[in-house]
Design brief:
about 20% strand; single chain; eight-stranded mixed sheet; Rossmann fold
Length: about 290
């Protein structure tokens, strides 16, 4: 009860990333909001169709950030619009279930179910189910990475690319042991530990590779990856560790380190670096679907 109340209080804090987007708002041909009912859960998605789209298009599945407990897909609205128009992909923006009400592994399973729902409804969504890219930011990047691992375990096709921006990939290491540049968060790592506990409340969950992909043993056969890391980010070491494990497993990886940037810079700035990161993502999507 206390955990849920505290999480709800944190959700009342203003989302600076949503209030001040770092790319210009772009009209798209269509934005379609869909509520997907799956057992006891309902998940909202938004589908952004690029201007001029007439036939089935490749699809980019986007998972927003928010430490698994906060924010919504609306924070990524301007970026989804930009990516749709720039890449000519249909961008599907997912509002996955949040902890502590829906802890690990519920968001993982729900993300997998959403992906399958999209594939099964490809014709009505006007997408090409053979050309799917998965990506996200922070906690959303964790889901994108884990979704690729889950597809491998179930012997299902990999996406053309996985895009991991400032990914949270290690719940097994206490935040106090991470190189936190923010003085306030460094002094009070209990806050980050609380967020982690919301998502992985059981003692044995943090070490599960579907919660902490850096602990995965076998990564062969996963989708190529674009990994975007910030120089001054507590999660930079786990992004670099995961990059190295993917490379050793024979996975093609492009790691881009943005200097003088902190966590979630792609939403919080500096503006020029954020726009550079989103252009890089757009360029990578275009190359992947060619």
């Amino acid at each position: 009860m206390i955990t849920t109340l505290t999480a709800n209080l944190l959700r009342l804090l203003p989302n600076q990333a949503e209030k001040k987007p770092l790319v210009e708002f772009q009209p798209v041909q269509t934005k379609t909001d869909i509520l997907i009912d799956n057992y006891e859960l309902s998940t909202a998605i938004s589908c952004y169709y690029p201007i001029g789209a007439v036939e089935r298009r490749p699809v980019y599945l986007n998972f927003h950030g928010g430490a698994f407990i906060m924010h919504s897909k609306e924070m990524d609205d301007p970026y989804c619009r930009m990516l749709a128009n720039e890449t000519k992909c249909v961008v599907v923006n997912v509002d996955y279930p949040k902890a502590p009400e829906y802890p690990f592994p519920i968001p993982v399973q729900q993300s997998y179910d959403i992906l399958n729902w999209i594939k099964h409804h490809a014709e009505e969504l006007r997408i090409d189910p053979e050309k799917i890219i998965i990506g996200g930011q922070s906690s959303g990047a964790n889901l994108a990475a884990v979704l690729c691992m889950l597809l491998k375990e179930r012997h299902e096709p990999q996406p053309l690319l996985q895009v991991l921006s400032c990914p949270m990939l290690d719940f097994s290491t206490p935040h106090a042991e991470k190189p936190e540049p923010d003085p306030w968060r460094s002094k009070y790592p209990q806050v980050a530990n609380f967020l982690n506990h919301c998502y992985v409340p059981e003692s044995n969950q943090a070490a599960h590779p579907y919660a902490s992909p850096v602990l995965a043993e076998r990564l062969e056969g996963l989708a190529p990856a674009l990994i975007i890391a910030a120089e001054h980010d507590a999660f930079r070491p786990e992004a670099e560790k995961y990059t190295n494990k993917l490379i050793k497993s024979g996975v093609q990886v492009q790691l881009e380190l943005f200097e003088n940037c902190t966590h979630a810079f792609h939403h919080l700035g500096p503006k020029d670096k954020a726009q550079q990161a989103w252009r890089l993502i757009a360029e990578s999507l275009i190359k992947a679907v060619q």
